[in-house]
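In the laboratory, one determines a bound structure by crystallizing the protein with its ligand and collecting diffraction data. In a computational setting the workflow is compressed into a single prediction: the sequence and the ligand go in, and a structural description comes out. We illustrate the idea with 2-acetamido-2-deoxy-beta-D-glucopyranose.
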Amino acid sequence: MHISNPIVFSIVGLMGQVAMGGASATATKACQEISKALPSRVSFPLSITYYNEAREYWSTVLRDLKPACVILPESALDVSAAVTILNKYPDVKFTARSGGHDPNIGHATVQDGVLISLGKISGTTYDRNRNVALVKPGGEWNEVIAALNKEGVTIVGGRLGIVGIGGFLLQGGISFLSSQYGLAADNVVGWEIVTANGTIINVNAADQPELAVALRGSGSQFGIVTQFTVRAYPIGKVWGGMRIYDESKADAIFKALHEFVPYNLQDKKAAIITTNIFAIGGTRAFIMFYFYDGETPPTTGPFADFLKIGSIIDITKTQTYPELLKSNGFGASLLNSRISFRTLTLPYIANNGAIYAEISDKMRDITKGFLSNPFKLTSQCSVDFQPLSSIVGQHTEARGGNAMGLTGSDPDRLILEIQCSWSDKNDDDIMRQFSIDLTNWIESRIPVWVGGEYGPAANVYLPLFMNDAMADQNVTGSYRDYAKFKALQLQADPQGILRTRTGGFKY
Ligand SMILES: Cc1cc2nc3c(=O)[nH]c(=O)nc-3n(C[C@H](O)[C@H](O)[C@H](O)COP(=O)(O)OP(=O)(O)OC[C@H]3O[C@@H](n4cnc5c(N)ncnc54)[C@H](O)[C@@H]3O)c2cc1C
Ligand SMILES: *[C@@H]1O[C@H](CO)[C@@H](O)[C@H](O)[C@H]1NC(C)=O
Ligand SMILES: *[C@@H]1O[C@H](CO)[C@@H](O)[C@H](O)[C@H]1NC(C)=O
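The predicted complex, in structure-token form:
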């Protein structure tokens, strides 16, 4: 529920504007001109729509930022009209927001600039003849997957149903279905885009394969996407859900994880997320998300080994795919905290199953002092170990490739997602630093862990995963074809409008 006191909010907002200089006169002028072109689509401070839209973010950190106005377009034409006008105001920043789940300041937020909220450009339809879904960026995965499930199909999408659609599909997207069909972005075959100069173009992967590759993992840099065309796949009932374990199961869980990563190649229908949580006083726990694309999970092999470990809470069962996603997202929807993400890509080292526990111990040591403070009881951090099986790159390559540079000859890897959440604004820097300290330490350890297995560490290709990254991480710089995509971006945006004035990771 929204806190519905817009008057108090506005007074606080006005005070903030006075203190910070407020939205510039040019930003306000741009907003007014857009408002003239798109009557009733633009909301300004003091209005309830503005108040609600400016708070529509998963991480509460982002609710502190105040755009000059919020545009709520209802079509690509509306977005085009707004971007065309913004072209006349080179000093005004603007940004698009789909679900608002990216926790980084300045990505889907814009202090004193123009926020283009895509919430009303929403809805999913299935084109049976072409076997593709037409997906608009507003809303959340719960809605997309529920709509498609009625047709007996699905697309490669979010694992927690509450997550937003546009950012997920533009920044990569790891799904429970990725070992069967690749990353979410790999399965996008068409994009309707409002480009830097406001023109609407349709990019088709078959006609523009190079641009298609760039669009699969470059984020917001090629324009505002108003519709995605995505390959569909059949889906029936699935098995899965969440189980929670206490710290005593750490060894068993990490052993099963180590065996699961290469096993995924043999059983592509199985998927897991291993979440290692660090909370009060340095206590540790595990949340495992399990998924099996079938009514019953296997009874032998590494996936089955996980299921034999005794849990303290178990809500796994056979259910529909929309039911699973909905229940997976429930906990995260209640969080209501300041949150940070940071990522790192780990090589899978067959002869070393000890690194997960080393990483876990390190994160406990980094956070223990802080988390032992009785005044910080609501703070926690977690490290997610997400297997990225070699098979994923085979699907990527078969579909033409992605910006992250996954290929058919990829080794097994794991993508780490390091999350912290807290409630006190004064802890923002401390909490982010915990994740930075951990990734710095891991980066120093990787050459030691890799040892002889892969040869020199420099040869291991470990691109960063954009959807899980912190704003300061050079995600695009970690991509193999960075220079090529940078050139393509320059071509699409010669004046640097998207590069310098909008939010998100850049080339
Ligand atoms: C609870 C939770 C669970 C998650 N689970 C997963 C998971 O299973 N797998 C995974 O891969 N990731 C996961 N993520 C990460 C998630 O993919 C990213 O946070 C993603 O950015 C969310 O998409 P969004 O639409 O909410 O993005 P937003 O926050 O709205 O935007 C993110 C960035 O993309 C840009 N952008 C958004 N929409 C458009 C558009 N239509 N056109 C142009 N630019 C646009 C914005 O300007 C911004 O720079 C999860 C995140 C959360 C919070
Ligand atoms: C990111 O990495 C690329 C490629 O190595 C490099 O050229 C670029 O300068 C880096 N950007 C920043 C901001 O460090
Ligand atoms: C606007 O951008 C599109 C796509 O990048 C391009 O084809 C077109 O020529 C541009 N129009 C103008 C007037 O610059």
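Confidence is low (pLDDT under 50) at residues 1-21. Keep in mind that any predicted model is a hypothesis to be tested, not a measurement.
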